Amino acid sequence: MLVSKSLNSAAAAPATYPFDVNSEHVSAHATALVALSHSTTEQQIYAAMVAEIAAVGTRVASFTTRRLMSLTGINGYSTVRRGVNGLLNKLSIERQRVAGHNGGDHPLVVYLVFTPEEILARRRAVGQSIYPKGLHEQHGASLVRAMSRVAGVRVLSRREVEVSLCCAQGLTNAEIGARLEVSEQTVKFHLRNIFAKLGVKRRAELVSRLLRDDVP
C-alpha cells in the first residue's frame, strides 16, 4: 500500500476556509459545506491531507503528528491531535491500520481522506446534518453561491460566517440571535466586524456581495 512521501518543502498554512472550489471533480457546494463544518484547525489539516494524497497519487497516506505540524505550520502536538480527532468525528477522514507492515510488530496507522461529496454522503448515512449551524437545507442557486463565496473568505471567523449566511437568508438581527442562540447585541457586534473585514457599510451591501451573479 502506498503511504505518504515527503515533500520538498512544507506547505504554507492555509487560511481560514481554504479549498480548491474550482476543481472539475469537486462541486463548489459540497466543498463549501465541508469547509464551513470544520474548525479552522480541522480545515488546515484536511487541506494539507488533500494536498499530500494528491502528490502521492493515492487515497490513503500515513500522517504523523509531526508531519502534519510541518505541512500546516500549526505549532502544538495537542492542537494537531484535536484537529485530527475532529476530522474523524466529522467523518472527513478515517483511520486505518496496516497489520504487519514491513514485518514489524506494530501496525502502521494510515488515513483515508474523503472527498467533500463522500463526506456529505457519510454524514447523511448516519443522520448528521450536512449544513452549518443556522443554515437550513435550501436549493436556491443564490444560497449555494453565498455558501461558496463565504467559504472562500479568508478573514471571517466561524461565527461571522454563520451570521453572514443568516443575513443572506434574509433574517433580522433578532432572528439570527434566536437561531444561533446568542443575543441581538452579539449579532450586531459580529456584523460590525464583518462589515469592516469585507469593506461594506451596511447589510444590503453584504447580501448583495453574497448573492448577486455579477459580484466577483
Textual characterization of the structure:
The chain folds into 2 domains: 28-125, Orthogonal Bundle (Arc Repressor Mutant, subunit A); 141-211, Orthogonal Bundle (Arc Repressor Mutant, subunit A), CATH 1.10.10.10. The protein has 10 helices and 3 strands, in the order H-H-E-H-H-E-E-H-H-H-H-H-H. It has helices spanning 28-37, 40-56, 65-72, 77-89, 116-125, 141-151, 158-168, 173-180, 184-198, 203-211, and strands at residues 60-61, 93-98, 108-113. A 3-stranded antiparallel beta sheet has the order 1-3-2. Helix 1 (28-37) crosses helix 6. It is elongated. The termini are far apart.
Can you give keywords for this protein?
3-stranded antiparallel sheet, Arc Repressor Mutant, subunit A, 3 strands, 216 residues, 52% helix, 2 domains, mainly alpha
What's this, in brief?
By secondary structure, the chain is mainly alpha-helical. The protein is 52% helix and 6% strand.
